[in-house]
Amino acid sequence: xxxxxxxxxxxxFSRFESDILxxxxxxxxxxxxxxxxxxxxxVDVSTYEEGRWFCRLNILTVDPIAFNDLNxxxxxxxxxxxxxxKAVIHDIYxxxxxLYVVNYALVK
Length: 108
Ligand SMILES: CC(=O)Nc1ccn([C@H]2C[C@H](O)[C@@H](CO)O2)c(=O)n1
Hints:
By secondary structure, this protein is α+β, with helices and mostly antiparallel strands. The chain contains three helices and five strands. Bound molecules: ligand LWPQI4CV. Catalyzes the hydrolysis of N(4)-acetylcytidine (ac4C).
């Protein structure tokens, strides 16, 4: 028998908190280790640095994406330029090509 563990928590760097709460940032791009969020579930969101809770998000979709296929639409959904988004991802996940786009909605 196998057990499926559904993640109920997610962290973001605190610099992204205001964009998430204002609805300007509606996706996050994660590596394989954080690809197991389940559409239709809700996660509690805290800052990565302090572990301070700041909202709940409803997970809408989780889709694989190659680093080289990131485009202007992803950047717009991150409230960044494409160059900024690629630099952020390269900093967080250096050398990782296989990524996942997690699309979410703020629970109000
Ligand atoms: C621990 C960890 O990796 N935390 C992360 C990862 C990513 N983000 C943000 C940064 C960008 O806006 C997107 C794309 O990765 O997601 C984050 O806040 N915290």
